[in-house]
Amino acid sequence: MENAKELILEGLDCANCASKIEQEVKKIKGVKNASVDFVSSKLNIEAENKDVLADITIAVTKIVKNIEVDIKVVEPENKSDNINVFDELFNKKTLARFGSGIALFVIPLIFELPHWIELLMFVASYLIFGVDVIYKAYKNLLGKHFFDENFLMSIATFGAFAIGEYAEGVAVMLFYQVGEIFQDMAVNHSRNSIKALFDLRPDYANLEVNGEIKKVSPEEVKVGDYIIVKPGEKVPLDGRVVEGRSVIDASALTGESLPVEVEPGDEVLSGVVNKIGLITVEVTKEFQQSTVSRILDLVQNAGSKKAATENFITKFARYYTPIVVLIALLLAFIPPIITRGTGIAQWINRALVFLVVSCPCALVISIPLGFFGGIGGASKKGILVKGGNYLEALNSIDTVVFDKTGTLTKGVFSVNEIIAFDGFSKDEILEIASYAENFSNHPIAATILNEYKGKIDKSSIKDHIEIPGYGIKVIAEGKEILVGNSKLLKRENIKVPEADEIGTIVYVALDGKCVGYIVISDQLKDDSADTIKELKKMGVRRTIMLTGDNSATGSKIARELGLDAVYSELLPDQKVERFEELYENKLTKGNIIYVGDGINDAPVIARADVGIAMGALGSDAAIEAADIVLLTDEPSKLINAIKIARRTRSIVWQNIVFALSVKVLVLALGVFGIANMWEAVFADVGVALLAVLNSTRAMNEGKVAEEQKS
Questions:
Q1: Under a CB-based contact definition with an 8 Å cutoff, are residues 598 and 616 in contact?
Q2: Which one, out of 165, 169, 427, 445, has a CA that is 20 to 30 A from the CA of 605?
Q3: pLDDT tens sequence across 469-517
Q4: pTM, full prediction
Q5: Which residues are annotated as catalytic?
Q6: Under 8 Å between Cβ of 9 and 42
Q7: Contact 280, 226 (CB under 8 A)
Q8: In this structure, what DSSP letter does residue 462 have?
């Protein structure tokens, strides 16, 4: 979109800051919508018009600096290369800083020193560990951002010094900093692991120029250029094999390891790996339009469409922290007034425990990582999920509606029978139909043309009209030919003969009279029946098929698969109408999902709660239309997608329950003086670290387990 812009927030390591940036950017004049993806550090902005984008970018930079001074706002083309996080965090300067700070902290604990020396050493140690935290808290205060972790940690440690707990104040800052380092390492490791799951991008292309091979960036290659792909190399751009034979491995795209043989004339997609022979490929799409580029763009931008759980936690965090801070203030000053035997220092200490625990980082960090991990794991199985909201929607399904041809059936047709009337022979019926179907790309047309062995005088075919949902009308050798379903004949006021055969009936009419029909059958996919059974086991209430085929064929397939209902003889617009009826009559709050084979089903896919395009590898239109794209022709991929969604939800809720339980427990213990600041630091950074590590399990699609029915 011309009115959209993407910015990179380099150095974004605070999920709470990401939430604040998103909120503030949405308030900028001219911004229609904004979303920060913490995992990829991207800020996606949609403006009211493109003319205000430059002003918005300037405003964004100011907002980001007010919220987090260390974050840089850069254009995508100017982003820094990946930094080794370990080297960055554990360089000589950092090690010297921590070494000196720990020495100054430990010496007063071991040796008996005069009070003023002890105090100086603790203060020096505290400043070594905490000066950057204090500075960030100061900058945030100037920007009127009060309840961030830097502010809370500064107040808590200042308070510890104020009541004479010097060692505890230094220890809290020390362990907070150590926890932050390990937390940053875990977050960056998770980010890199997620990116590695769909690291399909080819590094180079072997461009053939005047008989010589030149290694270039894939972006430099143009449509019509020839590239050489050696054994073991990725195919860098979509193209057509013009020379050589080989076997390709498409597992990185589809999750399926079955190799595919290619020869001159075959299409190959970017991202697949050439396994055996040397092949020459004519490029048919530039890199930005190639399959691998589109897939990477979809998956990497999936974080901008957030799940309801993620949005809820973001809102929850906005209220949770101020409430806990208010309770801390009340805890510090009210009990000493109304109780006896406890001093104000003791209650302030308990209040400081509240402040340390109050940061919601464990929730705000781990939940987007969990959802993005699930999306990354799904992509490795050949399932593209365009956002956490769609992944979460798969956890609550009322009805799954399927298209028939190409979805539950193979879409590979064969002519079973030809019925002829009025003295016409079967061969003549086939010939008449072949003239009508000659210019059509429909699978049924291809079946009829493959069955016909004779020659067709293409010059005699005039006025070819393809009528979607009905059939084809042409003038050939001066005669009007109609080939299509019963609706086409009724539309032209031609009497429709009875047909008892099971299959797709293609009627043939010549000069206003039906002269015969062709019976064409399709085969069920091997895993269609198992998919329907598995959906019912998972708690899906209804499985329904919508088809334009005749009722006899539709009913036969529905019985074989065990579907709950089938609606036949539907035109494309009638499919949408029937889907609307199903939507209005659903008995639960669950979602209605539509699964189709892409382009032809686009209107219904767009209407569904979750629209799923199947067998869409290389189909730009299908990838654009659907919310979830199954890159192979297997219906069972839907089962995989649901299992990944359930596993992801389980991990996300584990983090929510674990984080809140530990925090509430420590808060409660803090009120009674049982928990001290050491436990409080664990409840903050320790819990965040464990939650982040748990989120990485969502990436492991190989261990997707069956969940209990929800």
A1: yes
A2: 445
A3: 899 999 998 899 999 999 899 999 999 998 877 788 999 999 999 999 9
A4: 0.76
A5: 403
A6: yes
A7: yes
A8: E
